[in-house]
Design brief:
single chain, alpha/beta, Rossmann fold, Luciferase, domain 3, GMP Synthetase, Chain A, domain 3, nine-stranded mixed sheet, six-stranded mixed sheet, 13 helices, 27 strands, about 25% strand, globular, ATP-dep_AMP-bd_enzyme, AMP-binding protein
Length: about 475
């Protein structure tokens, strides 16, 4: 997926165009191309070339991009991980993979003739870790074409072009934000990469940004200071209620999509009319595996040019394939036929079995987010001696340290009675100032469940 060849092409045609802007400054396309070329010569000098796996863990997002693109130019596969990982952590998460090099310091440029290699669509050109919150992360690997060939389709849907300034306000270890940054460079736009959520600097970043890629819970912050923004590309989770209306009032168009790190794009909602297949994607909703009855729900399967190759080291994971090119990661949705809107209800393995009923947490969360004062919410199953589990809601208040600023439990329960079936209604209610999140911005459901089981301080029971 990396776009070293694209950067070299843009450097030849628009050398003075700003390519990337990070915490330490900015680089034009000509300057970025020179840094990538010099770093690729350094890697080649260390024997890193075609077939090699180059682990990359750098705090500076610009240096991370340089290293990843240099590995691409040298013919290696970059594997991006956390910059806070020490070498012991890297050794643990990559034990089955054995990378040929760990790049944990900016690569020094080496002078010499240009490094040139023909980039092939089938090259294994990018690997990243899944955003799972428990166990050893899985490294997902994909071909170059599985992402770069989707750039024209995304540009057609969003109107993104070479004159745009694209804000990428999150860590590049996330495939969502990595794609956004590299898509901007592939398109010839300017990628603004603070490396994390910019907080108090958000308004300054938005002053000249025309596009932002982000996760839904960050959209309200962006809409408070829209600046020059015209398009928000939103992925990672469902939009919160009223998000499109708020964006319309701010003059910002929202293009939302559904996908997964293993699947890339699956469906897109470009106008508020609901999710429909992303260009080139076929979708089926099949009966749940193992004979499980999902009632009105089934399992989402996709077939497209944008799918990942799988997991490095033959790691086990949710990705499954059939013999006809279809894949699934276990997400569930309402019944679907061609031409209809796809209604995704979440990951099937997160379903709560309570008293013989199956409850999808996302169904409950969607209703509870409508309550004033609920910043976000996670629903999990808590063990119960006779029911198996009971539905438990953890409300994010965003205020205070004890959770006492949460909406009254009576209001939450009244909303649940109006919008949810009996089995779906939470029996237990908690509040926290903020929820833990994965690198893509999704609430880390497994971490929250662990907090409850261990009685972590800071979680307040709502009575």
């Amino acid at each position: 997926m990396p776009v070293a060849a694209h950067v070299m092409s843009h450097a030849a045609t628009r050398p003075s165009r700003v390519a990337v802007r990070g915490p330490e400054g900015e680089l034009t396309y000509a300057e970025l191309a020179d840094k990538i070329d010099g770093a690729a010569r350094h890697l080649r000098g260390r024997g890193i070339g075609p077939g090699a796996l180059a682990a990359v863990g750098l705090a500076d997002p610009v240096e991370l991009l340089v290293a990843a693109l240099a590995a691409d130019l040298a013919g290696a596969t970059p594997l991006v991980g956390g910059h806070t990982w020490d070498r012991e952590r890297w050794a643990g998460v990559t034990a089955p993979l054995r990378p040929d090099v760990l790049i944990d310091r900016p690569l020094p440029p080496v002078p010499g003739p240009p490094v040139r290699r023909r980039a092939r669509p089938e090259d294994l050109a990018w690997a990243c870790f899944s955003s799972g919150s428990t166990g050893r992360p899985r490294a997902i690997v994909r071909t170059r074409a599985s992402w770069t060939a989707s750039y024209p389709q995304l540009n057609a849907l969003t109107g993104i072009g070479a004159d745009d300034v694209v804000l990428v306000p999150g860590p590049l270890v996330s495939s969502l934000y990595a794609f956004a940054a590299l898509h901007a460079l592939g398109t010839g736009a300017t990628a603004v990469v603070p490396g994390r959520w910019p907080g108090g600097a958000l308004a300054a970043h938005l002053a000249d940004a025309t596009v932002v890629h982000l996760v839904p819970h960050r959209l309200p912050d962006v809409l408070e200071h829209p600046g020059s923004l015209r398009v928000a590309v939103v992925g990672g989770a469902a939009l919160t209620p009223g998000a499109r209306q708020a964006a319309d009032r701010a003059g910002v168009r929202v293009v939302a999509y559904y996908g997964a790190a293993e699947l890339s794009f699956v469906a897109v909602d470009a106008d508020g009319g609901g999710l429909r297949p992303f260009p080139g994607v076929e979708i089926e909703v099949r009966d749940l595996p193992g004979g499980r009855r999902g009632g009105r729900l089934g399992e989402v399967w996709a077939r497209s040019p944008w799918l990942a190759e799988g997991y490095l080291g033959d790691a086990a994971g949710p990705l499954r394939r059939d013999g006809d090119g279809w894949v699934s990661v276990g997400d569930v949705a309402e019944p679907y036929r061609d031409g209809q809107v796809l209604r995704v209800r979440g990951r099937g393995d997160g379903a709560i079995q309570t008293g013989g009923a199956t409850v999808v947490p996302e169904d409950v969360e969607e209703v509870l987010r409508r309550v004033p004062g609920v910043g976000d919410v996670v629903v999990v199953g808590s063990p119960h001696p006779s029911l198996g589990a009971v539905v438990t809601a953890i409300i994010e208040t965003g205020i205070g340290e004890t959770g006492q600023s949460a909406p009254p439990r009576a209001l939450l329960e009244a909303t649940a009675r109006c919008g949810l079936d009996v089995a779906q209604r939470p029996r237990r209610w908690y509040a926290v100032p903020s929820l833990p999140r994965t690198p893509t911005g999704k609430p880390a459901r497994a971490v929250v469940a662990g907090w409850l089981s261990e009685g972590r301080p800071g979680i307040s029971r709502l009575s």
